[in-house]
Amino acid sequence: MKRKMEISELIFKIIAYFLLTVFALMCVYPLLFALSSMFSDFTAVQSSKVVLWPVGFQTEAFMYVFESPKFWINYSNTLFVTFIGTIWCLIYSILGAYALSKKRLLGRHGWNFFLVFTMWFSAGVVPQYLNYQTTGEVMAKMVGAGSWSDIDLKWLIVLAMGMNATNIILLRNAFEGVPSEIEEAARIDGATELQILTKVYIPMSKATIATVALFFGISRWNGYFWAYRVTEAAGQSYSWPVQVYMRDFLEEETALTGSYSADTATLSLGKGTSVAYAMVVMAMIPILVIYPFIQKYFAKGVNMGGVKE
Amino acid sequence: MFKCDDFLIYDEATGTYSMSPEQQVRDETERNKWKTAGFTILKDWRLYLMLVPMIVVYLLWKYAPMTELTAAFRYGDFQHTNERPWVGIENFRTIFVGGEAAGFWMAFRNTFITAFYGLLFGFPMPIILALFFNEVRSNVVRSIMQVCVYLPKFISTVIVTSLTLALFSGNTGGSSIGVISQLLGMISSSPTLHARLNQGLVYTVEYFRPIYIVTDIWEHAGYDSIVFFAAVIAVSPTSYEAAQIDGAGKMAQMRYVVIPSILSTVVIMLIMKIGGLLSVGYEKLYLLCPDPSADNYNVGTVVSTWANNKLGYLQQAYGIAGEMTNNLIGMILVIGANSIAKRAADVSLY
């Protein structure tokens, strides 16, 4: 039975489609803009002639980034921090969330509060920075180096940054949703605690773990502020993540941030700007590649653990 | 005979009282409380061992920084916080009414205003998007749109700010007017606007906040709509049918079917957002206005970036004191919001 569409419904539908299309295009436009600018003529980029499609064509900017050793060093730093950092965060988050999801854990409410309190109150940027500095000094002492600028600060970034209590709570809620009968069955079959976690809980909460891994990974890949503060203070540009390098390049070689000076710039302004867009595109590629595959998981994961009733 | 069957037993034959067996068990349990806890932990040691890495990480890098907060009550003269002499609330007096007051209150006001406008304009957007997504019947079209609108959430702050600076750039210092600024220039012919466009909208006092809020909506609206969309599609189709049979048009359906159904989600999300009001994204503001000599510094500095710019031990103490004030107020907001949520919707967020 097909119902006749009312005029008010039709108007609403048209408005909805129109505005959604506009917003969706707006969301994609800046990325297309960066892609076009990367391949456009330097003069066209500098005089903002590029609107949507490339004006002229060159691959020099891309080749500059492609052949820049500094870019690839920083790119590999980011890859390192993202991979090792995500795995590290996932390990302690999954283990901790599993323990927290157990009703028989003594002081369960206390541990939950311990975790949640960090979401309510943070010490602030200055204490956090002093803490990272102390951590760096301690790490340096542990390996027998003089000060924190002598050790590779990538390890500090991997170990000490990227904590997220929300993710642990997402995992905990997912683990709580696993029926306890399955756990009992596994226990009767002689499974140890770790086996129950790896053979029962992790396979049954794959969607949430994928979501949380994505969140950790993205925040690692995109992390700027603390990595910059720490590596800048220690004067260590070889352990910069690519985001820090990109910002630095933007300040040195383009006129966009207001700190540009023609005396210190090594490239012409137009080329510098094009190269900056090329870096933006290159830094986005990994996210754009994995995004469509993992997209279907996170909507599910977010709704599952967002609100605890 | 007084009643004491709870813990004592009256023996009629001898006329004496003796401890009831239940009470003996209770005493025994009480005496062995720690022992039992120890045994439980020992028996289950694998489970507790699993908790250890997380606790260590959080103690080292979330709780240890809080010990530095004592610096807010000390005179910042030495490198190590513990060596500094106590001065009581002297630092707080300096930032509230003393020499640092202008900077602190400016930053605090900016934090509040930015957060408030962000909430006012940013909060309805995801709901509107979710309602619109519900109108798109074709799954393919909707999926394509959703992929597009979720995307900005995953782009790094550095890239977002770089593109913002590029699209709104002015024509000073060798650059030329950005694409969006060109578009605005075509729409309006107001000479003041054109002067601002040339200056670079991000660097102007009037347009800094709108740009920050628009880019923030651009970043988060799509992603935040996930929760609301889930609430909207949970509305049963029979409710729509019933409303249609009763002669409700589209607007009436919205008003009487959809809005009441998603209201609890909206309230929860709103309370959650109010809780996080004072923790505005300082990373983005730091990247958009890093230069204390620029015009936009007076509207774009929040307490975190203000504290971050404090160099030297003496100044650091002011920064720590100021940010601590801000974060404490933020915490009160979160706890208050959560308790309201508990009472109003019987839902606890944590």
Radius of gyration of chain A: 24 Å
Number of helical segments with 4 or more residues of chain A: 14
Helix amount of chain B, in percent?
A: 55-70%
How many individual helices of chain B? 17
The rough form of chain B would be described as flat
SS-derived structural category of chain B: mainly alpha
Question: Can you tell me the residue ranges of chain B where pLDDT is under 50 for at least 5 consecutive residues?
Answer: none
Number of domains of chain A: 2
* Strand line-up across the major sheet of chain B: 1-2
Helix and strand pattern of chain A: HHHHHHHHHHHHHH
Structural key phrases:
heterodimer; A: 309 residues; mainly alpha; MetI-like fold; 2 domains; globular; B: 350 residues; two-stranded antiparallel ribbon; 17 helices; 2 strands; 69% helix; 2% strand; flat
How does this model look, in words?
The complex is a heterodimer of chains A (309) and B (350). Chain A has 309 residues and is mostly helical. Chain A has two domains: 58 residues, no CATH class; 247 residues, MetI-like fold (Orthogonal Bundle), CATH 1.10.3720. Chain A is built from 14 helices and no strands. The two termini of chain B are 51 Å apart. Chain B is mainly alpha-helical and 350 residues long. In chain B, β1 and β2 form a beta hairpin. Helix content of chain B is 69%, strand content 2%. Chain B has a two-stranded antiparallel sheet. Classes of the chains: A mainly alpha (309), B mainly alpha (350). Chains A and B meet through α1, α4, α5, α6 and α10 of A and α2, α3, α6, α7 and α8 of B.
